[in-house]
Amino acid sequence: MAEKLYTIPVNEVFEKKCECPICEIYHTLEKSALEFTMGPSYMEDDIRAMTDATGFCKIHSEKLLKMNNRLGMALILKTHTDKINKDISKMSASLKAGGMFKKADNSEMLNYIQKLNSSCFICNRIEDVFNRYIATVFYLWKSDESFKEKFLNSQGFCMEHFGLLVEKAGKELSGKTQEEFLEVLSKLYNDNMQRINEDLAWFINKFDYKYKDEPWKNAKDSVPRALIKLNGLVLEEEQ
Prior knowledge:
This protein has one domain (17-92, 106-238). Helices cover 69% and strands 0% of the residues. The chain has helices spanning 7-15, 21-37, 45-54, 58-65, 70-92, 107-117, 121-143, 145-152, 159-172, 175-205, 222-231. α9 packs antiparallel against α10 and α10 (175-205) runs antiparallel to α11.
């Protein structure tokens, strides 16, 4: 089955000690997509045609810039702006002014800009494979008891990916299987969010002189771990 192509990396990530295995999957795919974009691929006509048409979102533009390949970035941006300038110049010729009682129809230009502002070559490259990995999580839940054990022993998920798994469970599972999954998922999320909350409380306590000689327990890195749980933050040194 095609799903089996994705089972090894999914199993591996659920064996890691991390605050959200789904984040780990996403950031691995993101790193691969960034490296692909700034590798030799940007000289290929078919890849350049896609980057010309879609461009990059703000987040991935910044990450590409940090890869320190300014020449490669300049080549990509040059042909991208060539296409934008040509398209907008053509559409600008037909822009109309609206009046007090008449609204101008400039939908072609506005739709073009909106589409361009919401598209990203990196995001598109990640999305298809990421969705296959998410489908594999449910495939393994239904077919592999050893994966269930890994899932149960994980440290839960960030808020975004907890929501994603709840949403996808409604499509990928049914009946008692869905009910069991959601029960386990909710407990994992709630228990581990409580763990993070307690670690934060102890971190705060450590700044009180009454606790200065007490051990840190698991609280020393509680702030970045809380941010992973809340918004999927990945620190630079972890990438």
